[in-house]
Amino acid sequence: MAKARGRVRIAACRCGQVAFEAVEEPIVGAACYCTSCRTAGEQLEALPDAPAVLEADGSTRFALYRKDRIRCIRGEGLLRAHRLTPKSTTRRVIASCCNAAMFLEFKGGHWLSVYNQRFAPDEQLPLEMRTMTKDRRPGVEFNDALPSYKTHSGRFMWRLLTAWIAMGFRAPDIDYVKGEVHGTAS
Asked: Does 76 have pLDDT greater than 60?
């Protein structure tokens, strides 16, 4: 990981046994409304004593960080992957000590989508855009000027691409997540 040259944020599980250090600014602060994130959010919230994952409108808030700008500073042995199905390439990682959702990782991705609630309230990233709004729950309307995209917008993809270019087209492996659990979605 690069030396901290800018802001440092700590993302921690609810009980504090697991924590990540994120340096510099994230790629983007986004709310995802896709069916997969909603389904996973419901499953993760159903775990014993798990903290909330979904926002009141059914979205999942994330701060997307380059993988080379985030590292586990404690509790990596407590991390467990959660997949909607055994064949899912996307994994959501929880802290097994308190069942707090920590991050989402796309197979081959160069970034981690850190659950915004894992940061202290004064460190949470402001919402910059909404994605996958075509999948939002019925009745959810947006009454503000925040960019809201039906799918992954060009703006969203551009931010991911420029981050990947800055990383030299690398996608570091996150290999310290050992255990795995699967959801019940089809």
From this structure: yes
User: Which 3 state secondary structure label does DSSP give 184?
Assistant: coil
Q: Exposure of 182 by Cβ count < 10 A (0-12 exposed, 13-18 middle, 19+ buried)?
A: middle
Please give the torsion angle defined by the CA atoms of residues 8, 69, 62 and 152, in that order, rounded to the nearest 10 degrees.
140
Cβ proximity of 18 and 75 under 8 Å: yes
Q: How far apart are CA 113 and CA 150, in angstroms?
A: 19
Query: Which tens digit of pLDDT belongs to each residue from 90-126?
Result: 999 999 999 999 999 999 999 999 999 999 999 998 9
Q: Cα–chain-centroid distance for residue 7? A: 19
Query: What is the chain's alpha carbon radius of gyration, rounded to the nearest angstrom?
Result: 16
Could you identify the residue written with the tokens 């809201």? 148
Q: Please give the model's pTM, rounded to 2 decimal places.
A: 0.91
Q: What is the pLDDT of residue 186?
A: 34
First-last CA distance in the chain: 37
